[in-house]
Design brief:
The chain contains five helices and eight strands, in the order ααβββββαααβββ. By secondary structure, it is an alpha+beta fold. Strands 1, 2, 3, 4, 5, 6, 7 and 8 form an eight-stranded antiparallel β-sheet that branches. Strand 3 and strand 4 form a beta hairpin. The chain is globular and about 40 Å long. 41% of the residues are buried. It binds a DNA duplex through strand 3, strand 4 and helix 5.
Length: 199
DNA sequence: TGAATGATGCGCT
DNA sequence: GCGCATCATTCAT
């Protein structure tokens, strides 16, 4: 078992945390399964001044986790059927988080495949809704401490190579901000690619 | 291979 | 009511 990231990792500027999460491994242990995956695509949502951030309207019941301590999960329900998994960043009181958009299966592929409508490994976790469905994460898991032993991030296995920085996907406000990060050589990235060869 | 669209429910004005 | 940090399916090219 490799080393779990400490809370200090998350208590930093959100754009740095987002970039540094690429290549790391997300781990979820439940009664049903032990799952893990390599993070290949993320987006940053940074404070009340970021119009696309859920904290833009100020503190509400829904977004209160983002105002709390860094290193906790923020999971919300969207479009009537999907969940999105985020990691809270920066100091308590400053609302910011990193959305996990895509990953590559490492452990528990068969269990993820059973929960997915997809067959190929590289498509099972290629999207924020698909990631939560295959991992079995729901609103029940929002507010979980990522320094716990059930849900956490640990050091990556492979060396991180080229990182692409571009604009976020699926939003209508704050579209110009370059807050999306992905690994250029991954075939599991969900959204549009800025450049590069086709898979 | 890409554009359009329906599914489906919650939070907030 | 409307909009939403989505996805799978359907239809067109």
């Amino acid at each position: 078992m490799s080393s779990k990231l400490p809370r200090s990792f998350y208590n930093r500027p959100t754009l740095e945390v987002a970039r540094d999460l690429l290549g790391k491994r997300i781990v979820f242990k439940s009664n049903e399964a032990g799952l893990s995956a390599k993070i290949v695509e993320v987006e940053a949502y940074v404070g009340e001044d970021d119009p696309a951030c859920h904290a833009a309207p100020g503190l509400t019941k829904r977004n209160e986790v983002m105002y709390g301590k860094p290193g906790f999960s923020y999971i919300y329900f969207v479009y009537g059927m999907y969940y999105c998994f985020n990691i809270v960043t920066e100091r308590k009181g400053f609302p910011a988080a990193v959305l996990l958009r895509a990953a590559e299966p490492v452990d528990g592929l068969e269990i993820m495949r059973r929960r997915s409508s997809k067959r190929k490994a590289e498509t099972i976790l290629s999207g924020p809704g698909k990631f939560c469905r295959a991992f079995g994460l729901t609103a029940e898991h929002s507010g979980t401490d990522l320094t716990s032993n059930t849900l956490y991030v640990c050091e990556g296995i492979d060396q991180v190579e080229e990182i692409v920085i571009t604009t976020r996907v699926g939003i209508n406000k704050g579209v110009e901000r370059p807050y999306r990060f992905y690994l250029a050589d991954s075939n599991a990235v969900s959204g549009p690619r800025v450049k590069g060869p086709r898979a």
